[in-house]
Structure formats: C-alpha cells, structure tokens
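hey so u asked for the seq, here:
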Amino acid sequence: MAEQWLAAIEEPPSPRHHIMIAIEQSGPPPDEPDADATGEPAERSHVVGFIATGPADEAALAPEEKPLPETTAAITDLLVEPRWGRRGHGSRLLAAAVDGWRSDGFDVAVAWAYDGDPATRAFLASAGWESDGATRALDVDDLLVNQLRLHVALDAPDTEPAGA
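ran it, structure tokens below
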C-alpha cells in the first residue's frame, strides 16, 4: 500500500491529480528539552491528514451511471486523524483542493460519504456541498455499506468550510 501511495505522489496519473497533506506543528513532547542545540525552541511536525483528488472517473460514478463531465473533480480520499480533528486541518485541505480544482478548470466537485458517517456529511455540508441524489452500496467484508454522493459548484461563494 505504501508503494502505491508513493507512486501516486511522485507520478500522479495526470497533472490534475493531487495529494495534499495537513501538518500539525507543535512544541517538543514532554520528555524532550524545550530547545534544540542552537537554543531555539524545538518544533515537531506531524502529518495529520491528507486529501487525494483528481478528475471524476469510474470510481466517482453511481452504479450504471454514465461518465461525469470532464469538468467534474472528485475527492478520492479525505482523512484527518481523529485525535488531530477540530483544529482546521480538514477545512484547509478542502480549501486547497478547491483552489487547485479551479486552477485545473473544474467547475463541479463530487465526493462519496458513508451513510453512517454524519461527521463527514456535516463537514462537507458546512462548505456548501449537498446530495446530488446518487447512492451506492460497497461490499466490505460481506457487509453492504451505503454511501451517498455530495457535490458542489466551484464557482459558488460558499465552497470553503465555515471558519476556514
């Protein structure tokens, strides 16, 4: 899996595919000195989340749906480690994705959210995303997991989450 992610980062399928990361910077852990060898305050960086995006492909489609327009972007993955949540990382990742989509000529974006994940749906709704009516069920270990697709127009003023 790590090799696949490294390949996606180093050699994306197209110039319109992007992976962005969120970094939390903090002081030293309690068991380390407060300063580095130069006497400056020590800082630590932690990768705490990421977003992977690109043109909407077959993975963005509902069952038996025709391809989406070439001007449609899709979120492949969006994740912020829960212990680093509620610090604005998701909002900044989404805002950076919107900027990139606009630069790449996309005018709409889509994302799938699990029906049983109200936090993701509420987060995207706070940024102006809403259901487009498409649904699907993924077979995960012989259990069907329902998803609904959300979309947003990228020229809309409310495409960034509240508080971003």
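The first helix runs from residue 2 to 10. The chain has three helices and six strands.
lmk if thats what u needed
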